[in-house]
Amino acid sequence: MAAASSSSTSRRVKASSAAVVPGSAKMAAIGRLSQKLLKSAALTQTRQLSAAVAHSEQAAKTWKILSFVVALPGVAVCMLNMYLRTQQHSHEQPEFISYSHLRIRSKRFPWGDGSKTLFHNPHVNALPDGYEQHDH
Amino acid sequence: MAHQAHAYHMVDPSPWPLTGAIAALLMTSGLAIWFHFHSTVLMTLGLILLLLTMYQWWRDIIREGTFQGHHTPPVQKGLRYGMILFITSEVFFFLGFFWAFYHSSLAPTPELGGCWPPTGITPLDPFEVPLLNTAVLLASGVTVTWAHHSIMEGERKQAIQSLTLTILLGLYFTALQATEYYEAPFTIADGVYGSTFFVATGFHGLHVIIGSTFLAVCLLRQVQYHFTSEHHFGFEAAAWYWHFVDVVWLFLYVSIYWWGS
């Protein structure tokens, strides 16, 4: 039980140092990577703990804290990062070049006119002859 | 009244293996009929039969275990072996698709431009939605562990909260992937890049949906007091499956999304 609580303390210390890293996307990515490694290390430890029959009665509380202090904020940080990065995108249609190794239609799809894929998006998915005409 | 002199479960005769096999036949032949003759009747029939089979078979298992007490420790041990073997078989299933991906990407052919990603393919940025998806699944691994400990400690309310949170994260992942599929500038028909990408991530997504459903059933059962602090194997099986789904995603992310870009 002492081992579990001291390692959970070290987990919390590591988590806060990862959260403090500021600034550019690359630094944030390193912070997120260490958070990811942290989580998988924690998972491994859990699986090892689960093998034993006796459990610390603090365990549910520990994982609850991990959920709200590490896991969900990690998700929130990634959501913010995603939002900021997608703002920097251009919204232009990618150029169409009629490569023969792309847009393969050896057999028609069994739906519609057989030419559009299941998740067809007219703005970014060209058909073999080019983008559709009634485009935005 | 005679009773058994052993701890094992001699299961009563059941029609569900037969209906399941018939469903598999109808779905496979139905798929071929759809592709060649544009009729979905057979396949739809097979799908309905499959859903009915799954519902009734698993309902019967819950009756036998939770209500009739047939799941003694040796029986539970057998169920554990079964789940582990099943997940192992799924690992091999995904291994095949990873093999295909590495085969095509380590030595890209001249037809693709001799490079990976192939000429003309704009891969997705691994640090946008795919990174968020990674965080979501890792977080759900933490919350499902919280749920497990809550069940073991008899914390009913916490178990329900954490299990619900896990399922919501799973649904969020699925929604994010669906928008990624729609927004992607490449399709499944874009050569071997498209094939490996969408088949590997597509089967993974299907497994996320299956895992989320399994967890949702566990939530319903937890609410209805099926689980005890000592005996909750259905939940453990769902949690194992969920961790497996998470690990497959990590491999997909590192191989296809990150290295493959």
Task: Explain what you see.
The complex is a heterodimer of chains A (136) and B (261). Chain A is mainly alpha-helical and 136 residues long. Chain A is built from three helices and no strands. In chain A, helix 1 (2-20) runs parallel beside helix 3 (59-87). The radius of gyration of chain A is 24 Å and the shape is elongated. The N and C termini of chain A lie far apart (62 Å). Residues 1-23 of chain A have low confidence and may be disordered. By secondary structure, chain B is mainly alpha-helical. Chain B folds into two domains: 1-70, Helix Hairpins (Orthogonal Bundle); 72-258, Cytochrome c oxidase, subunit III, four-helix bundle (Four Helix Bundle (Hemerythrin (Met), subunit A)), CATH 1.20.120. Chain B is built from seven helices and no strands. In chain B, helix 3 packs antiparallel against helix 6, helix 3 (73-106) runs parallel beside helix 7 (233-259) and helix 4 runs antiparallel to helix 7. The radius of gyration of chain B is 21 Å and the shape is globular. The model of chain B has no long low-confidence stretch (mean pLDDT 97). Chain B: Residues 4-261 form the Heme-copper oxidase subunit III family profile domain. Chain B: One of its GO terms (biological process) is mitochondrial electron transport, cytochrome c to oxygen. Chain B: Keywords: Membrane, Mitochondrion, Mitochondrion inner membrane, Translocase, Transmembrane, Transmembrane helix.
